[in-house]
Design a protein that fits this description.
Keywords: Hydrolase, Metalloprotease, Protease. GO terms for molecular function: metallopeptidase activity. This is Protease TldD. With about 475 residues, the chain is an alpha+beta fold. It is built from 10 helices and 23 strands. Strands 1, 2, 3, 4, 5, 6 and 7 form a 7-stranded mixed sheet that branches. It has a 6-stranded mixed sheet with strand order 12-11-10-15-22-21, covered by helices on one side. The protein has a 5-stranded mixed β-barrel with strand order 9-16-17-19-23.
């Protein structure tokens, strides 16, 4: 998008008054969004946004400015502003020779969404809406369908001579269905998304996504109240990795660790989970929503083993936090847009599959709760304490899957739960989302195999044992 000579000049101006490091993040993105509610297409919007963020680091001090003026003059103006915020020693003007950094990760896109007509996208949204409604026309009261795609091109250059270019293409479809009968109202949610093009909706048919959300809402109408008390809990692989993402993953982001806001601070090399648990963040996975070739600081993506056989091995770093710990960034400096500074963020975070048969994990649970879909929740990253809603859960009775229940919540402590995992299945199921932190949202995936937790507090409106 911008030539190397211009970027080199911008870096030189940014460091004119001193500083240890400078970088430029240039972004061009084209977005499309379609919303359908009450059977009507309520909105179709598309737009283009572009701009650049310029940063200077001096020790632990960060100076940051951004602009949507990508002319040479506009960039130099922003660089001048950011340079004046650094209280360093000015020196001889430097010239930076930028060398392209290549990533071994390439993502295949079969149908670029910017080459797919709006009519085709609207047709997919309508198909999902209709499929949800025909599940039960009398009890499905509301269906909301959202489609979005983004084509993002970035150019990143820094004062160490790094120059990287990347294109990220993501597509997403979500359906939320509301069912009611008498005084009972229940919802069902289903979402698919990946680092891919419109071919996503060939792998996951809109009709199937819509029907899955509606069936979940309808089924929950006749579910019995969940019991309350301590009991074994099996999280099915299809439930995705909400637990590992929220109760564990955020606590492994290096900025929270360095601020003393993580229970994992000072525990590298120590056992923090059961020996059957290995946690990985791998942004190089194909077709995953949280994947990327480079992070937003131009560091090539890589697989990072965070916990191995229960032992804490690493944290998720961006350049700034890596410098503080005297290590190299492992490619997890991410930002929402050019208007935001990079911070350590997850990409695709998951517990790796084990050797246990998922069906046997349930049979060995005796009496407990099987969770097939997680809902929302709250986590305190400083303590690891969490509360999660269960969107779809079943009683386990004498090792067999029993009736569907509603109103269940899971309460516990993330590090404690990791130690209480006693079986890890050979399967693996992913979910997607937009992870929020420090006012920024970035696309992520999380996953887990079927796991059994020895004991967890289940909240409900029914009677426990």
């Amino acid at each position: 998008m911008l030539d190397k000579d211009t970027l080199s000049e911008v870096l030189a101006v940014a460091l004119a008054n001193g500083g240890d490091f400078a970088d430029v993040f240039v972004e061009y993105k084209k977005l499309t969004g379609i919303g359908c509610e009450d059977g009507k297409i309520e909105r179709i919007h598309s737009g283009i946004d572009s701009g650049a963020g310029i940063r200077v680091l001096l020790g632990d001090i960060t100076s940051y400015a951004y602009t949507n003026d990508l002319s040479r003059e506009g960039l130099l103006k922003a660089a001048t502003i950011v340079s004046h915020a650094v209280a360093g020693q000015g020196g001889e003007k430097k010239t930076f020779v930028l060398q392209r950094v290549e990533s071994p990760v390439k993502f295949e896109v079969l149908q670029r969404p910017d080459q797919v007509s709006t009519e085709q996208k609207v047709h997919a949204v309508r198909a999902a809406d209709e499929a949800a409604r025909i599940v039960d026309r009398s009890r499905i009261k509301q269906v909301m369908v959202g489609y979005s795609d983004i084509v993002q091109r970035v150019t990143i250059a820094n004062s160490r001579g790094y120059f990287a270019e990347d294109e990220r293409i993501r597509t997403r479809l979500m359906v939320n269905a509301v069912a009611s009968e008498g005084a009972v109202i229940q919802t069902g949610y289903e979402a698919v998304g990946s680092h891919s093009g419109f071919e996503l909706l060939e792998r996951y048919k809109p009709e199937e996504v819509g029907a899955a959300a509606a069936r979940r809402a309808v089924q929950m109408l006749t579910a019995k109240p969940a019991p309350a008390g301590k009991m074994p809990v099996v999280l099915a692989g299809e439930a995705g990795g909400t637990m590992v993402h929220e109760a564990c993953g955020h606590g492994l982001e290096a900025d929270l660790v360095q601020k003393g806001l993580s229970v994992y601070a000072g525990k590298i090399g120590r056992q923090v989970a059961a020996s059957c648990v290995t946690v990985v963040d791998d942004a190089t996975l194909p077709d995953r929503y949280g994947s990327y070739s480079f992070d937003d600081e131009g560091v090539p993506a890589r697989k990072v083993v965070l916990i191995e056989n229960g032992i804490l091995k690493d944290f998720l770093y961006d350049r700034l936090t890596a410098h503080r710990d005297g290590v190299e960034s492992n490619g997890h400096g991410r930002r929402e847009s050019y208007q935001h500074k990079p911070i350590p963020r997850m990409g695709n975070t998951f517990i790796t599959p084990g050797q246990d048969d998922p069906a046997q994990i349930i049979r060995d649970a005796g009496n407990g709760l099987l969770v097939k879909k997680m809902g929302g929740g709250q986590v305190n990253t400083t303590t690891g304490d969490f509360v999660f809603d269960v969107a779809e859960g079943y009683l386990i009775e004498n090792g067999a899957v029993g009736p569907l229940v509603r109103g269940a919540t899971l309460t516990g402590n993330g590090p404690a739960v990791l130690r209480l995992i006693e079986a890890v299945g050979s399967d693996l199921g992913f979910t997607i989302g937009t992870c929020g932190k420090d006012g920024q949202g970035v696309p992520v995936s999380d996953a887990q195999p079927t796991i059994r937790i020895k004991e967890l507090v289940v909240g409900g409106t029914g009677h426990g044992e």
